[in-house]
Amino acid sequence: MLAIVDTGCANLASVGFAFERLGARSIITKDADIIRSADHVILPGVGAMPYAMQALHARGLVEVLQNLTQPLMGICLGMQMLFSGSEEGGAEGLGMLKGCIEQMDTGDLPSPHMGWNTLENISDDDPLMAGINQGDYVYFVHSYAAEISENTLASCTYGQPFSAIVRRGNIYGCQFHPERSGKVGAQILANFLKVKP
To answer: What are the pLDDT tens digits along the chain (197 aa)?
Structure first.
């Protein structure tokens, strides 16, 4: 069973539909016991980091998420919430990944980074990346990002290079929206479901 965490600030239905298309049973929930007992957990997010973290604290889910041992994937803002903190409002994150989310330097390009862009420097030795190729397009909407690190499985460039996909142990993150990224996004979500709890 897949639990999609109700953060109160995400397009939860589209994430649920993406897994439904893969034949996976999912539940959108803020119930700590359901989240703890799920085989896989998705932490989605759209909007501002301070508000999203405030919502997690209000729902008593911070420690629940921090102590999960099953596969957990953060999507977009959900990925950023996995880090120690963010320049956005000086928000403190979940601290499951080291580093601070920083405002992007997009140069002459419009901000936020919105639309299709390519995955680069793909780590082909991770099961999450099975069937994903250099130059595959995925859909982004963000103005803050994580720098490249030892946890980066794929990067992207928009004014600057940044982490598009990260992993540390059972913790995964996609800065883009796999649920809106066509066949490539569906492949990543399918690969995540195959990761053993």
So the answer is: 999 999 887 778 899 999 999 999 999 999 999 999 999 999 998 889 999 999 999 999 999 999 999 999 999 999 999 999 999 999 999 999 999 999 999 999 999 999 999 999 999 899 999 999 999 999 999 999 999 999 999 999 999 999 999 999 999 999 999 999 999 999 999 999 999 87
Considering the candidates 9, 76, 156, 174, report the single residue annotated as catalytic. 76
CATH number of the domain within which 100 lies: 3.40.50.880
To the query of whether residue 179 is one of the catalytic residues in this protein, the response is yes
**Which of 40, 88, 174, 179 is an active site residue?**
179
Q: Is 113 one of the catalytic residues?
A: no
Q: Tell me, yes or no, if 147 is annotated catalytic.
A: no
Domain extent, residue 183, equals 2-194
Q: How far is CA 94 from CA 4, 17, 19, 80, 135, in A?
A: 17, 26, 25, 9, 31
Domain tally, the chain: 1
